[in-house]
Amino acid sequence: MVKKNNSYEKLIQADNLPCHIAIIMDGNGRWAHKRLLPRTMGHRAGMNTLKEIVRACSDLGIKILTVYAFSTENWKRPWEEVDYLMKLLVEFLRKEINELNQNQVRIKVLGNYNSLPLVCQAEIEDAINTTNNNSGLLFNIALNYGSRQEILGAVKNLAQQIASGEINPDMISEESISRQLYTKDIPDPDLLIRTAGEMRISNFLLWQIAYTELWITECLWPEFTKDDLLHAIWDYQQRDRRFGGLNSERQDEINA
Ligand code: IPE
Ligand code: IPE
Ligand code: MG
Questions:
Q1: Which of 34, 94, 138, 218 could disulfide-link 64, Cβ–Cβ 3.0 to 4.6 Å?
Q2: What domains sit in the chain, N to C, each tagged with a CATH number?
Q3: Which atom of ligand 1 is found nearest the CA of 30?
């Protein structure tokens, strides 16, 4: 169904919002390429989209937003691009921290940020500490994040606990694995949005998205708007989440 701009707001059911939205923010490079601009300009435009989408999620009353900002594989990119992305992160946090804090947004980082440049680490620590007691949107930034590395870390920790006699293998459960991940204490995403059309997950939250609803749009991240977000939420609200079971209508038929 093709909708005109700003048309999804009225269609959203306020009592059926996804609790946790995750976004693979892709397409910055293609956006810049289309405009004959350097890729870095695409990342800058993408940062502006991120500001808008965090604000939109906060205004809508979404509980958790997780964005994929830099993957463990993104180190393969040219040094200049990686360096620009790190500087952009620092700029984003410095510029936005006051507004985010005022809006009760709580910032958390998923991923090993100890290997980022020191200035990034300091800015991240500051943002986490400043917003730590806030009660609004939980804003997770996946930075130097890779899902396989996260799961590998969990396996190593559990193996260590077995080796030291703290636990035995029978005690390992889905919950105990979840507790070893960066997302411990955070419910799994309900909705995963990927911009720029790629039909893949690119090592993002592999364990956590077992039953997440996927929504992929051709729209490039710098062009993604609040109405696109609402479109994704509206689409999510039309889905029948069965989690491997039967929907309530089918269940009623069987019980009849
Ligand atoms: C996403 O945009 C941003 C990061 C991965 C950091 P890309 O830079 O991957 O943009 P494309 O995929 O080249 O268009
Ligand atoms: C995924 O995008 C990572 C982020 C958005 C940070 P990529 O552009 O790195 O993914 P691939 O390489 O197309 O799979
Ligand atoms: Mg990409």
A1: 138
A2: 24-239 (3.40.1180.10)
A3: 14
